Amino acid sequence: WNGLLALNDGSLLVNPELLYIKGVQTMSLKLENKIALITGAGSGIGEAIARRFAQEGALVYVTDLDSASASRVAGEIIAEGGRAEAARQDVTDEKAWGTQLGEIIASQGALDVLVNNAGIAIPASVEDATLEDWRTTQAVNGESVFMGTRGAIAVMRERGGSIINISSIEGIVGEAMTAAYNYSKGGVRIFTKSAALACTRKGYPIRVNSVHPGFILTPLVQGALAGMPEGEAEEFVTRVTSAIPMGSMGEPLDIANGCLFLACDDSRYMTGSELVIDGGYTCH
User: Fold this and answer.
1) Helix orientation angle between 44-55 and 67-79, rounded to the nearest 10 degrees
2) Residue 213 · residue 249 · CB < 8 Å
3) What's the pTM value of the predicted model, to 2 decimals?
4) Which of 99, 111, 192, 284 has its CA 20 to 30 A from that of 16?
5) Cα atoms in the Cβ-side hemisphere of radius 13 Å centred on 187
6) 159-169 pLDDT, tens digit each
7) Do 101 and 152 contact (CB within 8 A), yes or no?
8) Is 181 a catalytic residue?
9) Choosing from 61, 181, 183, 281, which is the catalytic residue?
10) What's the confidence (pLDDT) of residue 222?
């Protein structure tokens, strides 16, 4: 067995990270028996996170405003041998948060990981943005993160857990055509640090971190581009791609792998941190 390590005294020690038994490689699962809730998991980054977590042994609760999309993702995870539950969730509804978290605790007894991923982007500059669109953006991208984080802390404070808030590089740097989005994601960034400090001050074994994706090819990005005038969309893509040192936009899996790191014990000494995954965009 290549998973056995020979010690100086002639004894053998099992290497839990890598075992070969009868020629079959067995890897330890980073989220084995963990319970995870991912919002906005019916497509894009959220879907990739749900799939990646399930591959690493987690039971994933796939929630989305679009119940059909959530059911599709959960069904495909199950078909691939993973564990998943699907539910419709409006992340702007405080009562819905209580219901969703209550159902998880009643069924599983715990929640180990929350990924506040649900989000929207309505392209508009500060001059062109309407107050209605502004408030909608803040409700989905900001208020939902507050409600989710608050609710998760309440159910995690004894057992512990990891809360991952999906912000953006546009919570760090500005973009002229995404005023409301910049505001919301900047809020998620600093709110995450506040929540992390609050947990450590109370002695809760809860880590709270933010993830800052760069330009990722998701339905959200594609929809935002489709909403722009044709010339502006082309100019935006050219400008953004040329500004990414690695030369291309990322894929949802790139973000999912970062979230996996923050969800598991590999990142046990991280809280209040911001994980930037952007192909080098913010190096400038």
Assistant:
1) 30
2) no
3) 0.88
4) 111
5) 16
6) 999 999 999 99
7) yes
8) yes
9) 181
10) 79
Structure tokens at 77: 């995870």
**Residue 2 neighbours by CB distance under 10 Å:** 11
Structure tokens at 59: 């039971």
Is the separation of the CB atoms in 146 and 94 below 8 Å? no
Q: Where are the beta strands (DSSP E) in 93-172?
A: 113-116, 161-166
Q: Is the dihedral of CA 222, 225, 227, 230 positive or negative?
A: negative
Q: Give Cα separations from 99 to 90, 118, 234 (angstroms).
A: 11, 17, 43
What pLDDT score was predicted for residue 12? 46
Please determine, for residue 21, whether its predicted confidence score (pLDDT) is greater than 50: no
Q: Is the pLDDT of residue 238 over 60?
A: yes
Distance, CA of 128 to CA of 91 (rounded, Å)? 26
Q: What is the spatial distance between Cα 231 and Cα 5, in angstroms, rounded to a whole number?
A: 61
**pLDDT at 14 > cutoff 60:** no
36 forms beta bridges with 60, 113
